[in-house]
């Protein structure tokens, strides 16, 4: 998830221009196309809420030919063969339909669906990239999860454009 420093993942109007950092941090590493390609290559499928899906369609499809599963109660249609619409119990969707086929399942967002995954204990890791900006308002990543979730900091990377990526492992309850 890409977030502002004050914890927003989208502005109220959904605009994402704030995600392109114009900052400079000399000690950071370069975020190259190769770095992104290597990262994306490791993803076996994407899962997202219908609003994130609709926004991606509007902005230009960034998911190539990788399978995409969209959670919705509506009767949505797509002309892309890689897109499948799902609804129902998230635990069952994950254990019966996704885990048997895919190893690295990337929960794209937005906050509505991500928070449900966290509440239900279905996520293994949180990867959050902080953009050097305060948005002031919008959609918060972590409001109202209503649960304490201990984390283990696995990795931190600072980039030349001031973005900081943090990888947290979720400590599953015994
Ligand atoms: N900063 C980032 O990295 C990032 C990442 C992803 C998205 N975003 C942004 O976040 C915004 C969208 O986030 P959002 O929180 O408003 O919405 P969202 O989570 O993308 O989608 C919410 C919708 O997902 C469906 N849904 C959620 N839980 C479900 C369940 N258990 N079963 C079936 N369907 C379920 C419902 O669809 P129906 O109403 O169709 O039934 C619900 O209205 C967009 O602006 C997007 O660009 C930002």
What does this protein structure show overall?
- With 174 residues, the chain is α/β, with parallel strands linked by helices.
- It has one domain (2-7, 27-170): Dihydrofolate Reductase, subunit A.
- It contains 4 helices and 10 strands; from the N terminus they run E-E-H-E-H-E-E-H-E-H-E-E-E-E.
- It has helices at residues 33-41, 50-59, 90-98, 111-119, and strands at residues 2-4, 8-10, 45-49, 68-71, 83-86, 105-109, 125-131, 139-140, 151-158, 164-170.
- The strands form 3 sheets. It has a 4-stranded mixed β-sheet with strand order 1-7-10-9, with no helix packed on it. Strands 5-4-3-6 form a 4-stranded parallel β-sheet. A two-stranded antiparallel ribbon has the order 2-8.
- Strand 9 and strand 10 (164-170) form a beta hairpin.
- The longest helix is centred in the first third of the chain and has 10 residues, at 50-59.
- It is globular, with a radius of gyration of 16 Å.
- The model has no long low-confidence stretch (mean pLDDT 95).
- Residues 1-2, 9-10, 14, 48-52, 55, 71-74, 87, 90, 108-113, 116, 139 line the site of NADP nicotinamide-adenine-dinucleotide phosphate (NAP).
Summarize the helices and strands and which ones pair or pack.
Elements: E1 2-4, E2 8-10, H1 33-41, E3 45-49, H2 50-59, E4 68-71, E5 83-86, H3 90-98, E6 105-109, H4 111-119, E7 125-131, E8 139-140, E9 151-158, E10 164-170
Parallel strand pairs: 1-7, 3-4, 3-6, 4-5
Antiparallel strand pairs: 2-8, 7-10, 9-10
The chain binds NADP nicotinamide-adenine-dinucleotide phosphate.
